[in-house]
Amino acid sequence: xxxxxxxxxxxxxxxxxxxxxxxxxxxxxxxxxxxxxxxxxxxxxxxxxxxxxxxxxxxxxxxxxxxxxxxxxxxxxxxxxxxxxxxxxxxxxxxxxxxxxxxxxxxxxxxxxxxxxxxxxxxxxxxxxxxxxxxxxxxxxxxxxxxxxxxxxxxxxxxxxxxxxxxxxxxxxxxxxxxxxxxxxxxxxxxxxxxxxxxxxxxxxxxxxxxxxxxxxxxxxxxxxxxxxxxxxxxxxxxxxxxxxxxxxxxxxxxxxxxxxxxxxxxxxxxxxxxxxxxxxxxxxxxxxxxxxxxxxxxxxxxxxxxxxxxxxxxxxxxxxxxxxxxxxxxxxxxxxxx
Amino acid sequence: xxxxxxxxxxxxxxxxxxxxxxxxxxxxxxxxxxxxxxxxxxxxxxxxxxxxxxxxxxxxxxxxxxxxxxxxxxxxxxxxxxxxxxxxxxxxxxxxxxxxxxxxxxxxxxxxxxxxxxxxxxxxxxxxxxxx
Lengths: 339, 132
Hints:
The structure holds two protein chains of two kinds.
Chain A: H1 12-24, H2 27-52, H3 58-68, H4 71-76, H5 91-119, H6 125-160, H7 182-205, H8 211-214, E1 221-223, H9 226-250, H10 257-277, E2 283-285, H11 291-331
Antiparallel strand pairs in A: 1-2
Chain B: H1 2-25, E1 30-31, H2 32-41, H3 48-60, E2 64-71, E3 74-81, H4 83-107, H5 127-131
Antiparallel strand pairs in B: 1-3, 2-3
């Protein structure tokens, strides 16, 4: 026998349904659409309960949700309607798979390619032609992969138009709610603050105790003048990290702040990396035995700087985009939270 | 095959009528669920998965305006016709009436004194058959 709705974890089934629908919705409209679907569902449940004169059972709630349709199909109705190869029912899944392909293949490839390009920046232009050629190969492969994904989805779309699996599903098998509680957020910000304070102390101690950074090698090598140029910026970054975590802890509602502030700190990091990329000497031998070690560590730091530069560019793009989105969202009228 | 064809044509016919009905109903302000019930009470049931995307599309096109407001301790999104929507609605209603009148004239029984050029006898559908 089905349990009455009131005995269930509060709104569990509905929230799981909304979460599943939200997964496929465009992020910009997600909250707004879910709030409206949520309100409609609750009104429908109230109506039904008033008609029956009792609370709905779990099975009855599941039945109503089932009638609404699979979450992906419900979400697809809110996507731009197109009459292309991929129908609206499969369109959100198709976009999701394309994103995975881009994330797992294109982004790492671009990162490596950019690293190689930066590493060879001081060499003759003729040496760069190979890298440019490999970029062309990348796009060929990307278009091939996207093409294959598109064709596969087009075939599935044609085959699944009348598939019974579109209507035969059970809302009770939807994934559990993922909750990020305020306690969790608070703990995370607090841990970040503690680590930032230790980070600042560590950075301040390094000039006096270089073994904190390079271990026993500190007896064989010493820092080159470039570190004196960038040291103040590194200290500033450590202080900025403390400030960032303090604001997140004390003003968690300022969702635009973390990505915006991150853009500022990334720009400072970019300045540091730029300074590091303009030299090949990061460490000098402190004793004659340290010559070989200094040379090996200089090469390692140069490679690390190149990779860091590539990572910074990607992080700047991501955080810049997030910052713009959050600022625009904070300027919009308040959106209701899901009841 | 015939059923599928009918279903496709029915959906096509219904799509335009739904837009018209929604615009007409929203001459007075409604929130989503109340709008569904109002349309249903007039004999036009509409699936929520059709209604909400339609409302958003009409709002994007500037024919509706909406805002969130608390009612009965719950936040609800209320829609109503915009000034542009009113103009479009009345133009569409005129078009709809003209089309209905034309179809009525086409479907009207042909007087027996006028022989058909095709040589076939005209078939006048009974209301029940017309609905099927």
